[in-house]
Amino acid sequence: MSRLAWAAAALVATAFLVGLAFTGGRGGPGLEPFVPMGLLTTPVENVREIDVAAPRGHWHFVRTQDGWHATQGMTTAGFEARLESALRLLRNSGPDRVLSGAEVTRTSAAQFGLAPPWLRIIVSGPDASVFAISFGATNPMGLSHYAKLDGSSEIVLLPVFVAEEWERTGGTP
Fold first, then answer.
1. What is the pLDDT of residues 12-63, one digit of tens each?
2. DSSP conformation letters of 119-171
3. Band of the pLDDT at 172, cuts 50, 70, 90?
4. pLDDT at 44
5. Residues 48, 126: Cα–Cα separation, whole Å
């Protein structure tokens, strides 16, 4: 290849890189805005009350103008931040897998650790709307918890960090 061809190729490559630098790369369908994929559809800022039943205790939280307050159960310092984080995870982190009602009816709820549940969360919104979810055992790999929404025949697999953050809301960090 001649020197002129190499110089032309280098000039085209440089122009391409300069163009990418000024335009910010490629646009289009690869750049999508964030959309929450979690099971909680109520915006986090609209949640008014939360009830948490875990192996280590039972907590009831109420949001006032001053922030979150525990009306039942002992809390540790920083529980407000953990509570907000747990709400965000429940709203933003979608299920890894959804087991249909047909798949679930072939087995018992005890197989998933949901009879009785290991952790139960009840979230109340401003218009008396209630979101209730029960967490069961972890899957065999230990990466997800089985969970069931009240009123649903499906069982979902939620990432383990979602349930762990809820367990920490009233307990130690």
1. 899 888 877 777 666 666 667 778 889 999 999 999 999 999 888 899 999 9
2. EEEEEE-TTS-EEEEEEEEEPTTSSEEEEEETT-S-EEEEEHHHHHHHHHTTS
3. very low
4. 92
5. 6
**Closest alpha carbon to 144 in 110, 115, 113, 108:** 113
Amino acid symbol at 18: V
d(CA 94, CA 156): 9
The DSSP bridge pattern shows strands 130-138 and 57-64 to be unpaired
Q: Output the pTM of the full model.
A: 0.77
Using alpha carbons, select from 143, 154, 62, 54 the residue that is nearest to residue 101: 154
Q: Residue 118, Cβ neighbours under 10 Å: how many?
A: 19
Helix (H) or strand (E) holding 80: helix 79-92
